[in-house]
Batch of 3 targets.
Target 1
Amino acid sequence: MSTATRQPAAQPVDRKPATMGQALGRALRDAMADDPDVHVFGEDVGTLGGVFRVTDGLAAQFGPDRCTDTPLAEAGILGTAVGMAMYGLRPVVEMQFDAFAYPGFEQLVSHVARMRNRTRGRMPMPLTVRVPYGGGIGGVEHHSDSSEAYYMATPGLHVVAPATVADAYGLLRAAIASDDPVVFLEPKRLYWSKADWNPQEPDAVPGIGKAVVRRRGSSATLITYGPSVPVCLEAAEATREDGAEGWDLEVIDLRSLVPFDEETVAASVRRTGRAVVVHESPGFAGPGGEIAARITERCFHHLEAPVLRVAGFDIPYPPPMLEQHHLPGVDRILDAVARLQWESDYTESPGSAEGRGGGVV
Amino acid sequence: MSTATRQPAAQPVDRKPATMGQALGRALRDAMADDPDVHVFGEDVGTLGGVFRVTDGLAAQFGPDRCTDTPLAEAGILGTAVGMAMYGLRPVVEMQFDAFAYPGFEQLVSHVARMRNRTRGRMPMPLTVRVPYGGGIGGVEHHSDSSEAYYMATPGLHVVAPATVADAYGLLRAAIASDDPVVFLEPKRLYWSKADWNPQEPDAVPGIGKAVVRRRGSSATLITYGPSVPVCLEAAEATREDGAEGWDLEVIDLRSLVPFDEETVAASVRRTGRAVVVHESPGFAGPGGEIAARITERCFHHLEAPVLRVAGFDIPYPPPMLEQHHLPGVDRILDAVARLQWESDYTESPGSAEGRGGGVV
Amino acid sequence: MSGVPRLPAPQPTHEEVLVMTVLEQPGAYAPAPPPSWRPRTDAGPLLPDTEPYRVLGTRAAGRREGSGPEAELLRRLYAAVVRGRRFNEQATALTRQGRLAVYPSSRGQEACQVAAALALREHDWLFPSYRDTLAAVARGLDPVEVLSLLRGDWHHGYDSPGTRVAPLCTPLATQLPHAVGLAHAARLKGDEVAALALVGDGGTSEGDFHEALNFAAVWQAPAVFLVQNNGFAISVPLAKQTAAPSLAHKAVGYGMPGRLVDGNDAVAVHEVLCEALDRARAGGGPTLVEAVTYRLEAHTNADDATRYRTDDEVEAWRAHDPVTLLEHELRGRGLLDEATVREAEEAAEQQAAKLRERMHQDPSLDPTQLFAHVYAEPTPQLRDQAARLRAELAAGEETR
Amino acid sequence: MSGVPRLPAPQPTHEEVLVMTVLEQPGAYAPAPPPSWRPRTDAGPLLPDTEPYRVLGTRAAGRREGSGPEAELLRRLYAAVVRGRRFNEQATALTRQGRLAVYPSSRGQEACQVAAALALREHDWLFPSYRDTLAAVARGLDPVEVLSLLRGDWHHGYDSPGTRVAPLCTPLATQLPHAVGLAHAARLKGDEVAALALVGDGGTSEGDFHEALNFAAVWQAPAVFLVQNNGFAISVPLAKQTAAPSLAHKAVGYGMPGRLVDGNDAVAVHEVLCEALDRARAGGGPTLVEAVTYRLEAHTNADDATRYRTDDEVEAWRAHDPVTLLEHELRGRGLLDEATVREAEEAAEQQAAKLRERMHQDPSLDPTQLFAHVYAEPTPQLRDQAARLRAELAAGEETR
Ligand SMILES: Cc1ncc(C[n+]2csc(CCOP(=O)(O)OP(=O)(O)O)c2C)c(N)n1
Ligand SMILES: Cc1ncc(C[n+]2csc(CCOP(=O)(O)OP(=O)(O)O)c2C)c(N)n1
Ligand SMILES: [Mg+2]
Ligand SMILES: [Mg+2]
């Protein structure tokens, strides 16, 4: 199985503004050019170039057998991708929107995620499932789900969510090169986000499973990924500019939820002593629960306050006119930071806490 | 919509040993007798009485239009149940095994869970989805999944898992009477568990959403549900008998994961100061993460140690000959209790913890 | 369900056992063939005709002049397609004015939309998809309520149980099993109710289509499935969607009749649907109808159809326009004077104007309603969250 | 894939556009019909015959005596069904001895199992379900490895890429799209490979069946679908599963040929499958074959079939036993002497004895292997968990 990745070009070329959508398209194109086993398929990915135009031009360049419009059936797309992977191809499929991946859930959970394990490594599933995901673009019902909790709870899947143009390219290349299935969550509202970037010499991105500290800080750590990364950075800047509280917030972009980079997160929280997990997906049984629990297990004696969570409400995603009330924004993040018990250091007098009784220690 | 539940009979009758499977079957029978809108259907539930015989006798008693064998299609079962609920029926469907509910995931997430919200209450979904679930019965692949993390992460669903014969009856009656959809997880390996019980005068069980303290204790709280409840009780008894450690463990049976009874759990942990969450489902992004995070948020200053989790490994469910290594057992639970930092009270000297730097307080 | 006409008690559904389909064959090995071998159901009547059924402009229409379709129905259909066309235009205009989040127009498919609505009796149910706003409006629902999903103020705006129109369904084909379940429930209750479910050509590829049709046939549910084959699923043409002779040929595989009809011929669609619905209500089981039509606009206002189809193709279909076809027929039969035309157009314009006006008013929304209907009773967690949002909103009010 | 025979470059799959299926109809309104209206594919050849195809014991077999099926094939099939029958008996016995977690016997379906295995060429792939252990064994795989899933030592025991037999698949119909994808991939690579996927009558109701067949037809994938219609899905008889004239009638709805065959006639099944596989390999696209057969045993050893069917029915099918049918034919044609019978039975007995012996040895299992193949590289969390389990095991060793 090829794991070839594009080599940097010889002479440096200027960086120009590129959108995340363009970087993703470029990643697909480069992966297809480098490895004839990479096949892209899904609903409307061929002639149309995908409803978000990420696959634009691929069918023209590589022909309809390499970039293929399929019948409208998500289980069929994932199921045939499994078969193609069994024959040595490296399928990259698109689920048109987050909520439209659900009809393929059975294939994803029972086969994509388990085939390697079932066959003791004999049948790997080098399959990338691209999912335009999350809200904030005024989509009507079923077009704005954050479904990562389902994928995280499924052993055998990698779950990746880029937040920057450079990561979009680098992580998608890594996902396609991976011999394991990757659910690749593309934050819809970042498709049009821009950064200076050079497709000839794409920034190096470490492999899947490495978080990155996007902003250094000392007061508390914001832990986030995907669409909430820019929001957290904005919150961190806001509180600095604001000055009043004098918080210097560290922001960690997880990049991948599975594998989860405990080391980077734990090191940061040990330093800052406080943490808030931020994501768009509903809070209850969402990614934040796992992350907060894990941090607490690893960093309990370093914590000045419980790890808090700022998440979407525990409701079906709201209609377009109300979504701004649902999405975690700067204010809600800073409110949570404010609740990180800056005033008193309760932990110094554990005996005084009310309501405890019958302790054995 | 009827919410009638069976009234206790006039004269007391002796309690006799009954299995959980029998109590579930009785609950279905009584619900069908009390309310003609209750319809039971699914694969093999009619003539055969279900592969676990829970629906045995219902087709004979109520006819094939009230207890119906369906074609073999889980999305079809859930999807037609939605339509039947739209017309005012109260469908109770069976997914033959946990992992075979996945083909119906789309209907469950996009419609069963959301129809009430979508229609602002005009189209409730009084639908019960019975799922024989979990491992420990030597089932081959796909017959032992613990899938509750998926359902918990889906707003609009109630998620219930009984652990006793009495609760099996009472909670299933409550689920069927509920005007909301309930994913009713029946621990397969408890189907044959027995208790003295009187079908004429079934024990009162509070409505969905109430946890129960199954064993009072003062040292630490074990928080669990469904198939792990007897294991936790056994662990609690073992350590008492064992005597060495002198732990007196409290055991909470959550009964329902959604709604989650924070009050009962928080009150216990505030008292004991220590907690371990125990479940069979994989640990990563499983129920334990949410529960531990929530306890920590609510009880941070009462905790002598981080809330620990004992869960299935982060792997696809193992084959029968290896499942005993995967399932949380008494030893693993007591190991976790032992790691609850009984020796030293770290929390009294937070300044001394290594690795913290750049604190702002 | 009160006021619904009652049927005689339903036939036992599962008792009258259909059996294995192997015929005895004369052969030397023969011990008596197993008792469950019986002659099969005859497939012939389930197969669609080789040509889509048409009435308008055909000799068939000419022949019918004496008996039917009567002038009254033709005029009703005409008025409705004229209104429908104008409704589609107005809704598309509202997207440009920022008053709809998105609009998937049924321009070109008005005959199907209107015929579907008019074929239904009072107690029948309609199961529309996102493209079928017009069918709901033609059934008499408030257009503003129907457009709620696409406006974005809520996921769904009208009273479904009251109007007997299920919510516009976005996940493709997922509404089909709902229609089957509802129709089956009605039959079990002895109500004379049929369900008509709409789906696109693309939607027929989904597993839910298959499961729904199979359940319907096995249960003999009074459900009718209308596939509006408009040639495309967004950009994907029918040829990449199926290799079948026609989508109506899928019916025989479920054991129900398949019917093929010209979807731009409102009279033909209406007739075929009425027949199928009558059969369904009478206990004759489900029908699959494929209506061949064309989406004249892009998939939605956000789509660029020039990326995947030629102007020529669109032009050719414009020449087969459902409104023109009906108008031509009426004129040819002397049923359309200028007054009737003017009347229809004015009614359409009035409806559009009223819609425009109402849609230009901002809906008043209460964000805390987001928590009200997740469950019958909000969970403690949802109550907390609602309280927090209320506090935020109050704080926002203050700083304003 | 090395060593696979190469095909001429595949035909463009999506370019040769199948078009909308509306025919022009002479009518008064006619503007020229839209350009995409062309005559449809003819459905006729896709429909199954009205009777299941048979060879054994029919005049057809008699007529063939000169040309084929040759004695050699008959003898091979005979030896294989005898071995197959014995294998089923042995495996069922192993459940009683606690050596298999469960066994879904294919007793009564040996003709299908064996014909499927023998119809395949070396480079073809087989996609079996949980009931198709025998097909894999008849293809030459190690029975102990094939039984791994049902023994419970691992989920899957044989080398799938090496044997070109996909893992026995438990979730119904989910293996069908795999077969389509693999066949499509092989075709894209220019390899002359076909995939044969097995599914039950119950499995045809699943959405995955529908999606797989549709993809196969649209892609013209070299895949053949063999439905073993054994009359039941656990307790649910065919009549509650489908109302179709036959399951083979589903084919026309995808645009592929549907064939109906007597599933207890090994020669007929073999012939129909060979034909379909040849056509597939030659680029002629997929086929759906329905083999009408009967499950003589309960669903699995854990099932009680008396709850849902009568002894009479079973007895009647016993009289149509696939082994007897074949034996009778061979005898009638003078192709079976006692030596051949003895030889076949001894071979069967030997295979069974060896299986029994090997299955009575406990497999040696390393629980920490549970973490080895979840991913190519275990995550840090899995490494931790493996270490913890290793420690537990070591502690357990000590206390022992
Ligand atoms: C399950 C699902 N998958 C994907 C989509 C995204 N999507 C919306 S409309 C559409 C095309 C539908 O085509 P068709 O069924 O022919 O209906 P039409 O839009 O032509 O009316 C797609 C792919 C969806 N809504 N639901
Ligand atoms: C998706 C799915 N749902 C349910 C089951 C449980 N189940 C196992 S076998 C079976 C019946 C299958 O019947 P059929 O397809 O006719 O195959 P047969 O067992 O007769 O060979 C059922 C319902 C399953 N394995 N997969
Ligand atoms: Mg369409
Ligand atoms: Mg069967």
Target 2
Amino acid sequence: MPSEIDEGYQIKLGVFEGPLDLLLFLIKKKKIDIQDIPIAVITREYLEYLSSRERINLDREAEFLLMAALLIYIKSQILLPREQPAALEGDPRKELVDHLVDYQRIKAAVGVLREREEEQSQIWRRAALTAPLPEQDLDLIEVSLFDLAESFFSMMKRRQGENLKVIRGKELSMGDKMKEIMTILKERDFLDFLDYLGSHDSLEEALLAFFCLLELIKARLVVAIQEQLFHSIKVWLRKDAPPVTKGKE
Amino acid sequence: MMDKLQQTLEALIFISVEPLTPAKMAEVLPDVPPEEIARALQDLLAAYENSERAIRIIPSAGGYVFSTKPEFDPPVRKLLQIERRKKLSGQALEALSAVAYHQPVTQAEIAAIRAVDSSYALHTLLENKLIKIVGRKEAPGRPLLYRTTEKFLAYFGLNAIEDLPSAEELKKLMQEENA
Amino acid sequence: MMDKLQQTLEALIFISVEPLTPAKMAEVLPDVPPEEIARALQDLLAAYENSERAIRIIPSAGGYVFSTKPEFDPPVRKLLQIERRKKLSGQALEALSAVAYHQPVTQAEIAAIRAVDSSYALHTLLENKLIKIVGRKEAPGRPLLYRTTEKFLAYFGLNAIEDLPSAEELKKLMQEENA
């Protein structure tokens, strides 16, 4: 529940970012010129706020207390009788005032940044690109047949461990399977090697798909690429591959 | 009427993951004089600004990048299943402005400006890559120095650090607020 | 003339990481009849097809996705190659930090630190002149030893390798998280 402060200011819990923030609030509330702080008044107010801190939730107590000590010190300096006129010694408030002015500027900047953050939070950029990378990007690692085979067999081993039930039935031909792969590549730009093989119902069919892929690589119709080591292997259509069956374009 | 150069810049800005800088444009198009690129770029930006498209090109961190217009924030968030974008805490934002206006700056200096220990805030900012370590100060203890990053610029939609309000402008803002 | 629905679809297709399917569109816009979405989509595609833009929307994998027009392939490729060259991957950066903090160091030692084979990352770093070979280790197989270069220091704004944040300092920064 927000507490009502005498001059109508609403204090929300935990609203002060630090002692300077509180000090600026008090100065503004009293409509005081920051260059000419009546230190006795401000110190009293500051201490009053600290003593009511169960309402203000000061989780950085030490920092607030440190400021209280500084205020009391400045107050004592002003009250102390001096042999020379104070003007020569310099106003003990000066350092605090300079600090407050600088901090006030930071607060103004916070306001600006907060506004911009709000504005920017409503516009969106793409996180990543979906466009396939050009084939002759030489930084990519073209994987060897050995890599392909290894990842395939390790996957099949895993799948056998899953106690897979093998569904028999469909008569499968290598020609049909190769056509299927090419059609998918035409439509989708690329295939995730393991996902694709894994999508087959039976081990036989997956094996067939694997050998078809090897054939297509050998025939230089497709290319298998790993963008980074230990990442999944993707299969792309070669740009110079002849069209299969009925291309739409 | 779009010419080939404008279209090429459009394709390049579109495909670039990071904001595309004029330097990169020049690198891709070494045969085109930079003034010509700059002019085509201005025309392209104007064309988008005047179009009815939901996307546009904005300057960001010294380059140019495509973004959606703000009015499409709700459906985009729904698509991405993002309830609300996370905002920086007041503490973090304060420490960040202190870095922005005093960089390069040490942790102790930031703490002094804010009269508050700022290590947690700095940690958050480092983790979010809004600030970075840029070396050490030639002072006792050789403390680490911090600066804002490119991501800082992008996060706040700034083109360069000079786009932040100057000390003078901040003073004006403060006066308005107090008036 | 573009209506709000067309624009919304445009923003959604733009921002979607995967090709945006009609099902997803319907999910985001539950109050709009699917026929209406389909019609707006056709209009949007036609508008792009007939425009002078270098980008367009194409059907892909059962959805729709933005792509640059094929005639801009050469500059786009050139840019992608430049970007790949310039950006250090996370892998490379990790290997680089391993070299920086343990130099002089062998490939096997880096691999042990990262628990990952690092030959490709090291190759990238060598090519970018961020690390160099400084000799061989007096050990079985006499493996090559790597160190960071002057360019590495310049890249990260360091005067000397001693200016790298120490393990102590990093630990302190990271601990704040738990505070």
Target 3
Amino acid sequence: MINKTVKNAQEAVQDVFSNAVLMFGGFGLSGIPENSIQALLAMNINGLTCISNNAGVDDFGIGLMLQKRMVKKMISSYVGENAEFERQLLSGELEVELIPQGTLAERVRAGGAGIPAFFTPAGVGTEVAEGKELREFDDKLYLLERWLKADFAFVKAWKGDTAGNLIYKGTARNFNPMMAAAGKITIAEVEELVPAGELDPNQIHTPGIYVQRIFQGKNYEKRIEQRTVRK
Amino acid sequence: MINKTVKNAQEAVQDVFSNAVLMFGGFGLSGIPENSIQALLAMNINGLTCISNNAGVDDFGIGLMLQKRMVKKMISSYVGENAEFERQLLSGELEVELIPQGTLAERVRAGGAGIPAFFTPAGVGTEVAEGKELREFDDKLYLLERWLKADFAFVKAWKGDTAGNLIYKGTARNFNPMMAAAGKITIAEVEELVPAGELDPNQIHTPGIYVQRIFQGKNYEKRIEQRTVRK
Amino acid sequence: MLTKDQIAQRIAKEVKDGQYINLGIGIPTLVANYIPDDLDVILQSENGLLGIGPFPTEDQVDPDLINAGKQTITMTKGSALFSSAESFAMIRGGHVQLTILGAMEVSENGDIANWKIPGKMVKGMGGAMDLVASAERIIVAMQHCSKNGQSKLLKSCTLPITGIRCVDMIVSDMAVLEVLPEGGFKLLERAPGISVEEIKSKTEGKLIIEGEIPEMNFAN
Amino acid sequence: MLTKDQIAQRIAKEVKDGQYINLGIGIPTLVANYIPDDLDVILQSENGLLGIGPFPTEDQVDPDLINAGKQTITMTKGSALFSSAESFAMIRGGHVQLTILGAMEVSENGDIANWKIPGKMVKGMGGAMDLVASAERIIVAMQHCSKNGQSKLLKSCTLPITGIRCVDMIVSDMAVLEVLPEGGFKLLERAPGISVEEIKSKTEGKLIIEGEIPEMNFAN
């Protein structure tokens, strides 16, 4: 079986270049590729376009890349909880494209699946529809939306094997599977890396074909944004 | 948790009506809803439109419904290995729409996912493209294809729970997950039905939301079309 | 005037046995507390879960298990986890039967505005545009008026809209109203102590009043 | 003239380490037998498997584990199972790097016909149209001529086509040919004992011959 293991995050991200289009799995801070983000922060690159449902918080996740002014443009569905983000946006330093969350998920899925465009009802009659083709099917209006692809996709899984097969945990799955498929180079970091053959083929969430590099992650902080407990 | 269990195949299929559009999971004879097909054969209905990758063989699967002349139209990607099918087709008794397999899979997926139409490269320049919109994206030509939905979808899983969650086995998964989502009424038969809570939520292939009725199947023949063994 | 909890309590009466429901952030989240125990419903979290359970105890807290508001949660028995693409396939495909969400404005033809205030910071629409464009039935939990007394039930929305002709029912702090397919807010119930006249004066959009309008009943 | 096994053996030389490959029914399936052991490649089965292993022993036979030709199979270590939609997402998305399939006709601009003979029984295109419209590299295994000696490498296909401008290479029982992007069959190798003249006379489409054309080498 093809072995896709690399030593660590530094080795995995070394060829990421300025002005590249990057995708990051995760919803809020859950399921984000913490190790890859750390490794990217150590690089001297900028002008990046980042596709991610959220933009992290001021001092964690993609928020740190914003602090370092590595990001030219964010493509996201929800970007609250981030003061530096707000500052850069209002000052015009940062471009932002806001996309309905389901449309974002489907555009990324389409990128991986070779579907260049599809129709969706989300955003009809709103400013999201501006400049987009509107068409009626079976008495309902839909917008034509295009695929999204990336030069590099960064995903985080619970378990992975050396062939690149991935299994996620809980709601940390979120955008990771689609982004794994939509990256020209997909870099997966996992909490537990096992030899090919140890994962049940019937339980794989992301088949290894989508993953070009995989490494054993370390020191996961897994920060919680809204710790809520029962009274 | 919502309980979707019905007693058996007879109860599950009782309201299927003449001229309905039906979907059947399975690839060849692998993963087909054997029990539901048997129950449908006992009903006095006809004029059915059947969406299924294949049409069974003469004496098994959907082939039996063709023998009984219950089917008006087949929508499939490959319909070989079936003499009665051939006879009905050549005599004009049976309508057939042949669709590239990936387009079939994606059209059914689109039906379940609320995507009324999408662009795909399969069939460009062939007779499949006749009457369809052709459009260029990033220097490649694509066809616009529509979603497929069904009045009833019949799927077969390995394990299922009373909430309708399903887990398939091996390559018997094939078209079942997409069809489960594309049926107005989806009827799942399983080899092993367990109470809600016994399946790992992280390993569910078809979330119960797509399934309206589920029953414990019996007497699975699981016929093999091409038994091939190592020398 | 109803409290937030009372709005949630009233909305809970609209929930039907066997429904799959998506609850938005804020008041809608509170609805879960008032769904009668004898109803089997399943709550969807658009970040990838069917079967949201109660908030966790301290030792159950799991950073890999959150809801769409990024709060830590638990799972009920028979739940299922999936990707964001699958989650919105469910939503867009009409499989989630009821969506309950907040709004800043609703127009008499059912348009909703709840994602953006121009000039103020824009946080994004999240999943709201997908939800309102797709759900079979949409109930809005909202304040009837702004802080300075302006009606939020309008002839047409003044804020950038989230979706068109989609709201089926509104439960505000003053009233329960149905949005008619042909346009107009049909008054169904009054909050305790609120008169029809008051509701009339606080509803800018077309208000339809037929016969006696009962007070809401929180008895059972 | 090459046997079917020799065609498969020659095609196996085109396989590169690390590739994900889809093998069609017939001769392409035989290619698996000739891929050198030191190459790590993964075979995709479009009915939902990455990592096709050898045929099973009698006691390994599992009706829930078949390939696209409906034959019983096994899985290799590190394989993954998925739905048909995911499988064709992989194919359409260009993740499967090499597709090897049979053909009834190929034209000099790379069109392929392999799914239908009008007037005869139509079995359907299965996954062939998706595969030829999507794969990065397509190699065709075919007979150079029909049973009555007519060339199957044509100026343009006479049968209903499966895909346009998609074939990259042909290995026939007579020759190995590259289909040039600008059109034309470029002769690369001759089958042992077959002369360039014979190939010329059996190729209706534009044949491009540059320099000496070596015989195929089955040595290693």
